[in-house]
Design a protein that fits this description.
Strand order of the largest sheet: 2-1-3-4-8-7-6-5-9
Strand content: 5-15%
Number of strands: 9
Structural class: alpha+beta
CATH architecture of the domain at 87-236: Up-down Bundle
Shape: globular
Protein name: GST C-terminal domain-containing protein
InterPro entries: DUF7962 (IPR058268), Glutathione-S-Trfase_C-like (IPR010987), Glutathione-S-Trfase_C_sf (IPR036282), Glutathione_S-Trfase_N (IPR004045), Thioredoxin-like_sf (IPR036249)
Number of helices: 11
Largest sheet: 9 strands, mixed
Domain GST C-terminal: 91-252
Pfam families: DUF7962, GST_N_3
Order of helices and strands: EHEHEEHHHHHHHHHEEEEE
Distance between the termini: 33 Å
Organism: Aspergillus pseudoustus
CATH topology of the domain at 87-236: Glutathione S-transferase Yfyf (Class Pi), Chain A, domain 2
Radius of gyration: 20 Å
């Protein structure tokens, strides 16, 4: 895809996963436009593109829309920018640290525990619309009391978050390094691990200071502060960020080019062999963890061991949606079986 393809980030303020992408864009000097989304459903701007995926952020590069922040960062690594990709500036060992830290934040339950620590300290814990929306997201059904669940599990969550911070304090940061992978400036290792702690530390009243504080963990708090300052400085150097309406984004993407480099169906893929999935077939795509009730429908364009690509068929503008294999599923859908929520 041409390097001048429009880049549009769909996000909302204080979205922790969006901050992960925003910091990447700033630190690599990638100019972008934004389309601000409501914190809870519905999101008509995405429905206009035929996208029913309910999580934030999403990133459009041309007519290709990428779901899930790890995939977004992987795609941005291939984008030409003012500064070289992080991978080109790090060693294999440092890239290994990046991958392990990404897993440390997301696959160990750290982020969910941070939510449990933080949420009860905010007005959102009493916002019925927000709580209903998040109960739908986690798939607990109409009887799930999301607020009670978070409140009841907060004490154990504080312990888990404290242990995670202690791990960073006594291992990677113990030798006085500035950045986690011992790079000269922030790297993907920092981006992959700082966003959730930065969200916690920057939320007024959220940090349980009897257990977690700069006095107890000075190296971690100093590292988070360093990163926030580096991000702020990098963001100031970006070109002006334009805020587009959903209608403007739809028009922009309707005239944009697509990236066809991933238009491959791997015939030896176990899912392809088991189900007979083929290019052009009508399918539905959804995440297997949170937000699994909301399925995006389109024609299958690509399926590899790393990525699923479909072309939407239900919006005013057709776009190509890319999702990682990890955490997502795709299956065949007959036109008469469409039952979309």
């Amino acid at each position: 895809m041409a390097s001048d393809a429009p880049v549009v980030l769909f996000h909302y303020g204080r979205s922790p996963f969006s901050s992960r992408v925003l910091s990447y864009l700033a630190l690599r000097g990638i100019s972008y436009d934004q389309c601000i989304q409501p914190q809870i459903l519905p999101r008509p701007d995405l429905a206009r593109l035929g996208i029913r995926y309910r999580r934030i952020p999403l990133l459009a590069i041309g007519r290709d829309v990428y779901l899930d922040s790890p995939m977004i960062l992987q795609r941005l690594e291939r984008l030409e920018a003012e500064k070289p990709s992080f991978a080109s500036q790090t060693t294999p060992e440092q890239r290994g640290v990046e991958r392990l830290l990404a897993s440390f934040t997301l696959d160990t339950g750290l982020f969910l525990n941070i939510v449990k620590v933080l949420l009860p300290t905010t007005p959102l814990i009493s916002n019925e619309a927000f709580l209903k929306d998040r109960a739908d997201m986690v798939g607990g059904g109409p009887n799930l009391n999301f607020a009670d669940l978070v409140q009841a599990t907060r004490p154990d969550a504080i312990v888990a978050v404290k242990n995670a911070i202690q791990f960073l304090e006594t291992t990677l940061l113990a030798d006085g390094r500035q950045w986690l992978a011992k790079t000269e400036s922030p790297s993907l290792a920092d981006i992959e691990s700082v966003w959730s702690l930065s969200w916690l530390f920057s939320t007024p009243g959220a940090v349980p200071e009897d257990h977690i504080s700069a006095q107890v963990f000075p190296k971690v708090f100093a590292w988070v502060d360093r990163f926030q300052k580096a991000f702020a400085a990098a963001e100031k150097s970006l070109k002006k960020i334009n805020t587009l309406s959903g209608e403007q984004v739809a028009e922009l993407l309707s005239n944009a080019a697509s990236d066809h480099t991933k238009d491959v169906i791997e015939e030896n893929d176990p899912l392809v062999q088991a189900t007979g999935l083929h290019k052009g077939q009508l399918v539905q795509l959804w995440p297997t963890d949170s937000g699994s009730r909301h399925k995006t429908v389109g024609k299958l364009v690509g399926l590899t061991s790393k990525e699923i690509t479909i072309e939407t068929t239900e919006g005013e503008v057709s776009v190509r949606v890319h999702a990682p294999r990890k955490g997502f599923y795709v299956n065949a859908l007959g036109p008469e079986k469409a039952n979309l929520s």
